[in-house]
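Researcher: Please predict.
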Amino acid sequence: MILGIEIEPSSVRVAQVEKKYELVQWEIFEIPEGVLSNEGIIDSEALVKVLMKIPTKFNLKSPKATLGISGPTNTAVKIFQVPYVDRDEIALNLPFEIDKQIPFSAKEIYYDFHILNRSKEKGISEILLAVANKQIINEFVQIFDKAGINLAIIDICALALYNIYEINYSNNETVAVINIGENVINFAISIRNKPIYIRDSSLTLNINIDKATEEEIRSFSDEVSAEIYRQIEYFRTFISNESVQMIYLTGFPLVSPVFISTVQERLEQQVLIFDPFRKVKINKKISSKMHNYLNIASISIGLSLRGTESVK
C-alpha cells in the first residue's frame, strides 16, 4: 500500500488505494497562502507542518508515498523510438538521447523509462521517457523526510492521470484526458489505450470558481479552451493522421456547469466529465464524502495506484 500525494498551491490531497482498486481513505489538507508559488516552494517549514498531519490522519507510522510532480519547467515526458536492443543497453545509451529529446540537460534531472512496445521484425523499441528537475525533487525528499513520510516513488502527475484513465476506461479511439489544476493543466492523450502524448501547460489561477460570476467563469473557460485547442493541434503535428475523438475533463472548475458548457462550445466537440470511480471502488465509509471531491481526486488516486500490482 502506497499513499498517493498531490500538492496544489492551496492544498495537499492524499489517497489510499488498496490492491483490489478500492479507495479506502482520501483526505485534503489546506496549505496556508504563501507557502507555494508557481516558481516552487517558498516556506518549506510550513509545508512540513502540513505534511506531518498525514501519518496521524491515516494512522500510519512512516508511511510510504508516491508524490506527483508537474509543470513544464519541472517535468517532461517523451515517447520515441530507439533501436531494438535489450533493456540494459537502452538504459546505457539513454543519457545520450536525453539532450536530443527533451529541453533539459541530463545533469539537471532524474529520469526513468518504460518500454511501451518492441518489434524485433521492425528493429525498434518504443519507450516512454519521464524526467523531473533534480533540484525540486531533492527539496521534496528533504521535506517529506522531516514530515516522517517515506517517498518511495516520484511520479509525473500527467502519467498518474493516464494510469487512472487506463484503469477505468477501455477505448479504441483517440482520447484526451485533461486535468485542470490551480497552476497547471495536465494532458494525457492515448490512441487505442496506449499513451502517445503526455504534457503539462502552465495555468495562472485568476478565479475563485465558487464565487465567480457567470461572465468571469466564461472568460476563464475561454483561456482553458484556447490552451486545450493549442495542445491538441500540437499533438496533431506529431501524428497528423489522428484527431482527438473524445475529451474527458477533470479538475476544480468542473463544479460549474457554465465552465463545462462553455468549453464544449469553444472546442465545438463533446466534452465528458472524467469519472475516476467507474472501476475503482469507494469504501462505504467515505462514499458520501467523495461525492464532494469527485473532480479533484483523480491525480492522487492515480498516484496511489502505484502501490497496486498492475501499475508499476
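Model: The chain has a mean pLDDT of 92.
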